[in-house]
Write a structure and sequence with these properties.
- It contains 10 helices and 10 strands.
- The N terminus is likely disordered.
């Protein structure tokens, strides 16, 4: 027998209707547009499931726990006794866009909407309290504040259900995917200690030109490498250190010249530092 609306909660019929399609996992939201907290057994993720709500875990709690991960299309769960209380207290219905195969571009103000209209392909749009949700077909990582007034809600996130919207849902474009790609921070070369002079620091070589030639030859060897760059860099570092590493003539300037040649061939600062350190270890320095 169907329960009266005041018992079931006014938002449950909408949730059941969405779930009936089999494609839109839904969950209730409490006041403040946030999911209900975990039950006592799952408080603090004591159940071991869904740590920090980042991934679905082994928890089989029947209550609407673990935020977005509670979203479901199962009518027996949605209409079951464990969810009855939260539906009576629910302030809205939400859904898991990633679980529905969707990405929501959440445009929070008029400026964000204007940007979207100028830069993004037209798609299904849903009016929100302050802006619009643009829905695309496809799943991607979620991220907040990808640009002023713009959030991305897709995998491991939830969005309020505010109606079907208008327009036709189009494929997720690369320009939206690119919004969550951050430029990597510049990496500085790891500090490398040049070995201290041995044997009193006296250089056995007759002229500084000998060292200069050795550095130039190592640079040329790295620069002309047609393949196996990692091995070539290591071999060049090893040759320089085996000849000049123990007398204390190598300086930071020499090392930076060799690192620069390696980086010009595509080696990262970390690879350069690792090759230098490995060469030191190989020679017992």
């Amino acid at each position: 027998m169907t329960q009266p609306t005041h018992i079931r909660g006014e938002h449950l019929p909408a949730a059941l209707s969405l779930a009936a399609t089999g494609r839109v996992p839904v969950l209730p939201l409490r006041a403040g547009k946030v999911p209900f907290g975990n039950c006592r057994q799952c408080a603090g993720n004591a159940c071991g499931g869904r740590p920090n709500m980042k991934t679905p875990g082994p928890c089989t709690c029947p209550a609407p726990c673990h935020g977005w991960a509670a979203a479901t299309t199962d009518p027996d769960i949605l209409n079951g006794p464990a969810w009855a209380r939260v539906w009576r207290e629910a302030a809205a219905v939400a859904y898991h866009p990633g679980g529905a195969g969707l990405t929501v571009v959440d445009l929070d103000n008029a400026q964000a909407i204007a940007w979207a209209r100028e830069n993004l392909p037209a798609t299904r749009a849903v009016a929100t309290t302050r802006g619009e949700h643009w829905l695309y077909r496809g799943v991607m990582p979620s991220a907040n504040a990808v640009r002023p007034g713009v959030d991305i809600k897709s995998a491991m996130s939830y969005a309020r259900w505010l109606g079907p919207g208008t327009g036709t849902t189009t494929a997720l474009p690369d320009i939206v995917r690119a919004l969550v790609v951050r430029e990597p921070a510049p990496v500085r070369p790891a500090p490398v200690t040049v070995p201290a002079p041995a044997g009193g620091g006296k250089c056995p070589h007759r002229t500084p030109a000998y060292l200069a030639r050795g550095i130039a030859m190592a640079e040329q060897r790295i620069t002309e490498a047609a393949g196996a760059v990692h091995a070539t860099v290591f071999g060049a570092f090893l040759a320089v250190l085996s000849t000049h590493g123990r007398c204390g003539c190598l300086t930071q300037v020499h090392m930076e010249r060799l690192f620069a040649a390696a980086r010009a061939k595509g080696e990262s600062p970390r690879h350069c530092a690792d090759a230098w350190t490995n060469a030191l270890h190989r020679l017992g320095m």
